[in-house]
Design a protein that fits this description.
The structure holds two protein chains of two kinds.
Chain A lengths: L2 H9 L4 E2 H12 L7 H13 L3 E6 L8 E5 L1 H11 L9 H14 L4 H24 L3 H37 L1
Antiparallel strand pairs in A: 1-3, 2-3
Helix pairs in contact in A: 1-2, 1-4, 2-3, 5-6, 5-7, 6-7
Chain B lengths: L10 E10 L2 E11 L4 E5 L6 H8 L7 E6 L7 E2 L5 H11 E4 L11 H11 L4 H14 L15 H13 L5 E5 L7 H18 L2 E5 L3 H4 L4 E6 L2 E2 L8
Parallel strand pairs in B: 3-8, 3-9, 6-7, 7-8
Antiparallel strand pairs in B: 1-2, 1-4, 4-5, 9-10
Helix pairs in contact in B: 3-4, 3-5, 4-5, 5-6
The chains are: A mainly alpha, B alpha/beta.
């Protein structure tokens, strides 16, 4: 899961303090693995340097958690590009796709579209593996099967999530 | 894939709408199927994919919209405007069907089941049996022609169903969850043999499946959701 882009996605809803951003992240994505404050602030500093966000001024006497940040146009574009670029199918995909789906719903963006784009990418890879099997020896067939079953597991998650989007959106908006 | 991108699609559906009572099964579907392609139609239960297949195959007449069938070298036919006897004739001469549970006639042997479409189209019994035996061999069912469906495994019975669907060399094969009742290995055998046959014959396939591994045998897929094709899969023209 890409923590920087997920934080940037959260920040694109509204300007936030680092402290609030960390808690927002933990609420949606931190199950069993909360983000460290240090990581939040170093990520924010990097994003300021890259002009994806800007600091809105500092309250007197405050530490880094008293700075409020807002996203820039470049940052908004970066989030949009991230949401709608399907990932290469891999074992770590699920958590990144999970993050994208939640962020898209929080932003009231088209979560169905990003799931469909990812489904297409997955199906394309499954077609490749299925074609490879036609000319392969049994060992290679087993290897392709391993890939096919893992991608299929992702697809089943995509299908179920797609069917649950309306309910998921309601729950996120009332959280 | 044996398709000609410049040719008219072999099946073209436009603005298909169909309801069962108060339930809208299809809510405006546009779909092109190119000659020689293998198309998987996916989607959740109740999304309208079986209704779509039935409209494309002339089993159902849509409440609104059109289905045009344009096989190579012949004048096109507006299937959705034909009366049932002509649609039945078209299904017999041009289309093949494979269903989830084979739907073989239990009191007839495998060879007789495969012969049925040939006999119905007027082929002599002896010729029909010879061709059905050849087709069974092609599907790895040598020596099983005399068996009744109840004496065959699920995978063997489904291969008989494929043989029956393909024995007339149909222009289009419609398959509704063709391996839905089989385990992974039997499913793979049926699909591999079915796809070999259709690619050799240049048959176009429209295959409904909820299973991604089955859909991966196709050249492309479309998703039907709530009676419409999902956005990313729609016809661009």
């Amino acid at each position: 899961m890409n923590n920087s882009l997920t934080l940037l996605g959260l920040l694109s809803r509204e300007a936030s303090y680092g402290y609030d951003l960390k808690h927002s992240y933990d609420r949606y994505f931190g199950a069993g693995k909360a983000l460290a404050f240090g990581q939040v602030y170093s990520t924010l500093a990097r994003m300021v340097r890259d002009e994806l966000i800007r600091a809105l001024g500092e309250e007197t006497g405050g530490g880094p958690d008293r700075k409020k940040y807002e996203i820039t146009w470049a940052g908004q574009n970066k989030v949009h590009e991230w949401l709608f670029t399907p990932d290469v199918p891999s074992e770590s995909l699920q958590s990144n796709l999970f993050a994208k789906t939640v962020i898209a719903l929080l932003l009231d963006d088209d979560a169905n579209r990003l799931l469909d784009l990812q489904r297409m990418r997955h199906m394309a890879r499954m077609r490749e593996l299925t074609r490879l099997k036609q000319e392969a020896n049994l060992l290679q067939v087993l290897q392709c099967d391993h890939g096919l079953f893992h991608i299929e597991a992702d697809l089943r998650w995509i299908d179920l999530t797609s069917a649950r989007l309306t309910q998921l959106k309601k729950e996120l908006q009332s959280a | 894939m044996n398709t000609n991108e410049n040719a008219a699609p072999i099946l073209r559906a436009r603005s298909l709408r169909h309801s069962f009572g108060q339930t809208d099964a299809l809510r405006g579907i546009d779909l092109d199927v190119q000659a020689g392609e293998v198309l998987a139609v996916m989607g959740p239960s109740g999304s309208g994919k079986s209704t779509l297949l039935h409209c494309l195959a002339g089993v159902l007449v849509p409440d609104q919209g059109s289905v045009d069938y344009s096989p190579a070298g012949r004048a096109g036919t507006a299937i959705s405007t034909l009366a049932e006897p002509r649609r039945a004739r078209l299904r017999l001469t041009d289309f093949g069907f494979v269903f989830q549970f084979g739907q073989l006639l239990p009191e007839l042997s495998a060879a007789d089941n495969v012969s049925i479409p040939l006999l119905l189209s007027g082929t002599r019994r002896q010729d029909a049996l010879r061709r059905s035996t050849e087709m069974l061999e092609r599907l790895g069912l040598d020596g099983l022609g005399a068996k009744l469906p109840g004496e065959l495994s699920g995978g063997q019975a489904q291969r008989v169903a494929v043989a029956r669907a393909m024995v007339t060399s149909p222009a289009v094969l419609f398959a509704d969850e063709p391996t839905g009742s089989l385990d992974s290995l039997a499913s793979e055998n049926v699909l591999t043999l079915m796809l070999e046959l259709v690619r050799e014959a240049g048959t176009t396939v429209v295959m409904i499946t909820h299973d991604a591994r089955t859909a991966a045998y196709a050249d492309r897929e479309v998703i039907v959701r709530d009676g419409v094709i999902a956005a990313g899969y729609r016809v661009s023209a």
